[in-house]
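step 3/5: co-fold with coenzyme A
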Amino acid sequence: MNRAASATPDVGRHTVRAYTPADSAAVVDLVVAAGMFAREEAGFLADGVLDADDDGGTCVVADAEDGRGLASVLFYRPEESSDRGFDLTMIAVRPDLQGGGRGAALMRHAEDDLRQRGQRLLVVRTSGTPQYDRTRAFYRGLGYAEHSRVPDYWTDGDDLVVFSKRLDGETHDGR
Ligand SMILES: CC(C)(COP(=O)(O)OP(=O)(O)OC[C@H]1O[C@@H](n2cnc3c(N)ncnc32)[C@H](O)[C@@H]1OP(=O)(O)O)[C@@H](O)C(=O)NCCC(=O)NCCS
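step 4/5: write tokens
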């Protein structure tokens, strides 16, 4: 795991720490509870994809204050063919804890980490369905702008929506 993710900063009142392989079952429970995957689809997350790597892929988690597993998880990794572009691959907050600022705290943590690492752009891919209305509002509220849609990408009637944010203070030159 890279330097920034191994720290344990107190982001707001939510302490973020580096993911370890011992968290894999709790991450699966969390993303299933958050409605991102069916349980039978989520097993790949326990196969090492979230582990430390040398490419800069970073997974962080926050423990729930009530001791019941994880409150949140965030995973971001480099876009291989991009100049210092990163992809926000996964973010989830335990359903009964949503709306309490945990998601925003994780996003700020990732952005600060990437800025410190000299990265340029963070890209988010999500869904255009009504189920994800609040998720899209979440990204907009954090300064992410919608830049493209691919109709029927995830499945028929479920568009890919791409948001991004410059991390280097630059703009997209009017686009
Ligand atoms: C999207 C998600 C990560 C946001 O984290 P969060 O901790 O709930 O969000 P925060 O409390 O930091 O931010 C609140 C804002 O997020 C948005 N939001 C998104 N989902 C929300 C939810 N379930 N409850 C409350 N607010 C939500 C709202 O715009 C809200 O702003 P408001 O308070 O002005 O209405 C989280 O709700 C979640 O895990 N959702 C299900 C999984 C998901 O959609 N993941 C992203 C896939 S691309």
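step 5/5: annotate
The chain has four helices and eight strands.
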